[in-house]
Amino acid sequence: MPEVAGVRVATAACGIKYKGRTDLCLIAFDAGSTIAGVLTRSKTASAPVEWCRAQLPRGRVRAIVVNSGNANAFTGKAGSASVDRIVAATARRLGCRLGDVFVASTGVIGEALPDGLVVDGLAGLADGLQPAQWKAAADAIMTTDTFPKGASRLTEIGGKPVTLCGIAKGSGMIAPDMATMLAFVATDARLPAGVLQSLLKKSADRSFNSITVDGDTSTSDTLMLAASGKAKHPKIETASDSRLASFKAALDGLLCDLAQQVVRDGEGASKFVTITVTGAASPNAARRIGLAIGNSPLVKTAIAGEDPNWGRVVMAVGKSGERADRDRLAIRIGGVAVAEAGEVVPGYDEAPVGAHMKGSEIDIHVDVGIGRGKARVWTCDLTHGYISINADYRS
Amino acid sequence: MPEVAGVRVATAACGIKYKGRTDLCLIAFDAGSTIAGVLTRSKTASAPVEWCRAQLPRGRVRAIVVNSGNANAFTGKAGSASVDRIVAATARRLGCRLGDVFVASTGVIGEALPDGLVVDGLAGLADGLQPAQWKAAADAIMTTDTFPKGASRLTEIGGKPVTLCGIAKGSGMIAPDMATMLAFVATDARLPAGVLQSLLKKSADRSFNSITVDGDTSTSDTLMLAASGKAKHPKIETASDSRLASFKAALDGLLCDLAQQVVRDGEGASKFVTITVTGAASPNAARRIGLAIGNSPLVKTAIAGEDPNWGRVVMAVGKSGERADRDRLAIRIGGVAVAEAGEVVPGYDEAPVGAHMKGSEIDIHVDVGIGRGKARVWTCDLTHGYISINADYRS
Predict the structure, then answer these.
(1) Do A218 and A262 contact (CB within 8 A), yes or no?
(2) CATH 3.10.20.340 spans which residues of chain B?
(3) Which residues between 49 and 78 in chain A have a beta carbon less than 8 angstroms from any beta carbon of chain B?
(4) Domain A7-264 CATH class label
(5) In degrees to the nearest 10, what's the CA dihedral of A329, A331, A337, A343?
(6) Which residue of B315, B317, B323 is in closest CB contact with A174?
(7) Which region among A347-356, B13-22, B320-329 has the lowest average model confidence (pLDDT)?
(8) CB–CB of A339 and B309 under 8 A?
């Protein structure tokens, strides 16, 4: 993954929980950088999420500090005090304002964060900042992930080259002990925070808000997009500027790439499932129908069992709460028509569909038949592996 | 289970799908009987559900016909025609109006119901009607259930004895191939259909709408309450009549009993879980928080693993979408305080909580700390057994 001008990274092993690996990552931005964020909607959000929510409206960033091993969630006043100490130490090292520092934590919840270890770790980090340390950053933020997650895109704004680099972690919407979904994207584009926020919100809905592993929502989910402003493109003042077309497509692609990596690393996942919904009352209705299918334990276990059980897909459409007409519903699995006009297709041959189900990439297409709303959602199957990871794990 | 005056039952083996067992049940009511029903909210409801929904406003009943082995769901126009033929044959046998006949089907979906077998079976049933055949009825409507489900209550209205008998089936909100939750309750009370409907709706919210196995909603879920009017109590005209107090309590108790039997037979369930939510913004908010906890795969797998992982309970409260304040939340497991005021309790000793988790009856109490709304929800754990039943099953 390439350098992003104006952005440097360093990692350290602080021993917060894990032994023999890095668990702290500092991403530093040159002065003048802007930031946008999408944070968990959980009503029991962690202390770091509350801090970030309060700082985002200013839209300025000099540092993102991320630790793994402890989520600093459900830690009461002590949790907020830990955030304050980490933020103060970072601001002092970088010579920036407190509100320019963003924090994220992932790992066990309900245990006090040993913030002294983080502050000690930061001491060495400020001097070790280097460009393009994305792989090291992705390694440092992993918890139950089985592989580090990163993606990059080269694009342009107004004909001038722009770079996007992102890292993510997560192997469930929420992994054992709230391991959380975190993603951080850096670009050298020169964009006001309001424009960034608008672009990020839209892209997040089509990527991280369109994936599901187990339907559970972490207290700590955090997605951030920061822009250093080092690229030489013309000034952009609104998100609707047509010169942003390539950048938007690149951001969409990068976020989808990261989000799909999270699903592929889903706990116990053996199959990657793409659910395409067309013909719904609206794009949001289509997404909710897709998520109802993607979250259904019965659909997910059928996929694990390689059973083309389209009846469970019908059930999930019905329970989504969105407008549907049983007698207009059409379902294709692996491109093969299974049901149309509310009935199994005449002469339905399960053989090709059964063969598709044995693969590792499953495609389900539902046409609701009542409107023009479309969406795509990604999920994985629900296997014995998921139960083993989550039932056999002890905090 | 006792007789209910004015109500008779017969069962038959039609060979719809299963061999060597009954699969058809006729519950017949004397003239003048009233009926109320609560049906699935699925937008892809089955043909029998659509028929019942259309007849319920009349509130008159002479027969309920239930078959197992085929759900007659997602069967298009052929499905509605099957319902018509079964209803016509029943009305002819009993000499009643078509609209007095209610139907329910449970079993595989997407396959045409062999209604000729049902019509043939009905021929013998009308002559074989007997009182108090509840056990036979409960047996005939089972699909993947591992035991038949029934309950009865003796109560009074205005000092006169009244009987309630109910049967149910289901081992998931929806079992393999939409096995569905069905429940039928008969009483000899003399109550107008409007009063019955009001009582049933309220009791259903506290019982069948407060249980969850996997969060999936069947296309066929059906709960009906029919009253023969043979009891000698004073005339009752409104659901708010204070003389209904005992009857309401008995109906609540009976429906909770049946609903809990369904949860105890939950697919792969090894533990029965009672979730009590207090201090929510409203009773409905409390129920939604309870269901968010009861539906969370991470909470359910933690219970399967006997792990008192209260962090996952916090997460589920947070994702419910209901108003909550992280710093007022209190959690008790097995009666032991685990977290209070947004933090683990000082000196928390996991030993007694761990011991409680090893039992087969798990109690989780969440106090949201912001209001007076209360609710109780029942669920089971999520085990390897659930995956085996649903992933290894082939339609």
Answers:
(1) no
(2) 272-391
(3) 73-76, 78
(4) alpha beta
(5) -40
(6) B315
(7) B320-329
(8) no
